[in-house]
Design a protein that fits this description.
By secondary structure, this protein is of the alpha+beta class. It is built from three helices and seven strands, in the order E-H-E-E-E-E-E-E-H-H.
Length: about 150
């Protein structure tokens, strides 16, 4: 019932390759992304990367579980799509842009249909807080983790 659409962009003092290494290491994402409670790799792709991952996320009003399929665009980002889960549908992406001087512009975007029940919980100011919580946590977490070495 409720379409949730949000994105956040941050400039990171780290090379694009380092940022890509961090975002594509899905099993370790909960280390730097607070909203992600857990990430369990269910299937790997032909290159040994996480292809299908069960992710549990803190959506403020409740924990949301999704089986997410990932597609990789080495050095420039990745996209994903929910295959099964608590939301009606979910898609998202990371986009990485090399700014030169070992700096990266990283954009995290999400779009989801929360469904009727979760949609009822995510109304008005709560929806805005959840969108900010989910997207800003990802970009600020990436920045802090990448810049810490």
């Amino acid at each position: 019932m409720g379409i949730l659409k949000a994105s956040s962009t941050v400039e990171v003092d780290a090379p694009t390759a380092r940022c890509y290494e961090i975002i594509s290491d899905l099993a370790n994402t909960p280390e730097w992304q607070e909203t992600m409670v857990s990430a369990e790799v269910l299937k790997k792709d032909s290159e040994g990367r996480a292809g299908l991952v069960e992710i549990k996320s803190d959506a403020k009003v409740r924990t949301v579980t999704s089986h997410i399929a990932f597609s990789y665009q080495p050095e420039t980002g990745m996209t994903w799509e929910q295959k099964k889960g608590d939301l009606k549908w979910l898609t998202g992406s990371w986009s990485l842009e090399d700014l030169g001087d070992e700096r990266t512009r990283a954009t995290y975007a999400l779009e989801a249909d929360t469904g009727r029940m979760l949609g009822l919980l995510l109304k008005g100011p709560v929806e805005d807080k959840v969108k900010d919580w989910l997207t800003n946590d990802a970009t600020s977490g990436l920045k802090k983790f990448a810049e810490s070495g």
